Amino acid sequence: MDYQQPSNPPWTYVDESIKANVIVCGALIVSIEKVVEAEMTLQQAKESVGVSSDVTLHCSKMFHPDGRRGTAWAHLEAAQINAMVFNLCRDLKKIVHRPLVSIFPTSWPTAPALDGAPRISLSDKGIAILAYQAIFPRLTLEYGKGVRVWIDPDSTMIPWGNQKRQAHYTRAVSMDLDPDRPHIHLNQ
């Protein structure tokens, strides 16, 4: 059977969550024809708990009591948020493709470097890069080139090579390894 490039590659929304012992990166994959329906489902889920549709979903603001303080989620108890997320996942399951998930530990061995360069140690945000990169080959294999990927921006400065970079520039399908060189495109 020959591989057929999809005529309308899906939209993919990717984000990570870093906890004490685990880093999880997930990709929600939506057919282009179902994007509006998925957005409406998300809007209805937020409104069902009295949260405005323009408020973003972020684990750090939703699931931790201190994180909810002063946000649109402050009036909710953990059980209400968990129920909303459960119902949202149930409703999205009818609309979206099977999600992709990668899971990594929060500690990683120090990587040996070449030619006597300093050994490379990854922070949790650095390990999250690996979690993102674990998603992209499967995404490309499953859906081909042209998949539209949206990654939640993260301007945290992290060690990257011998410099620091904003985290979101290290986890895209196009990676910025050196400002003097062209980007490396992983899905080509």
Unreliable parts: 183-188
> How many beta-strand elements?
8
Estimate the helix proportion, in percent: 25-40%
Indicate the overall shape.
Answer: globular
User: What's the main sheet like?
Assistant: 4 strands, mixed
Strand percentage, roughly? 15-25%
Spell out the helices and strands N to C. EEHHHHEHEEEEE
Structural class: alpha+beta
The total count of helices amounts to 5
Mean pLDDT across the residues is 82
Adjacency order of strands in the biggest sheet:
3-2-1-4
How would you describe this protein?
Mean pLDDT is 82; it is low at 183-188. Helices cover 31% and strands 21% of the residues. It is an alpha+beta fold and 188 residues long. It has a four-stranded mixed beta sheet with strand order 3-2-1-4, with helices on one face. It has five helices and eight strands; from the N terminus they run ββααααβαβββββ. The chain has helices at residues 35-48, 59-62, 65-68, 78-93, 124-143, and strands at residues 11-18, 22-30, 100-105, 148-151, 157-160, 163-166, 174-175, 184-185.
